[in-house]
Amino acid sequence: MRFLLWRSGSLPWRLAPFLDYAAEELHFLQKVGGGYIFVHRYLLEHFAAMETDDGTRPATPVE
Question: Residue 61 above 60 pLDDT?
């Protein structure tokens, strides 16, 4: 799965350093245990609402 996401350009190959950079330098994410969470709810909602390259929207999670 990781290879396919990298190949399609959806994720960088070195994902952990990218997430660490987003958490430590950009302050978009917060490292919690072994995972990451968005610092601001509005930022999460913004990325969730973005359209994909083919003009479709990803499925929205049910709350």
Answer: no
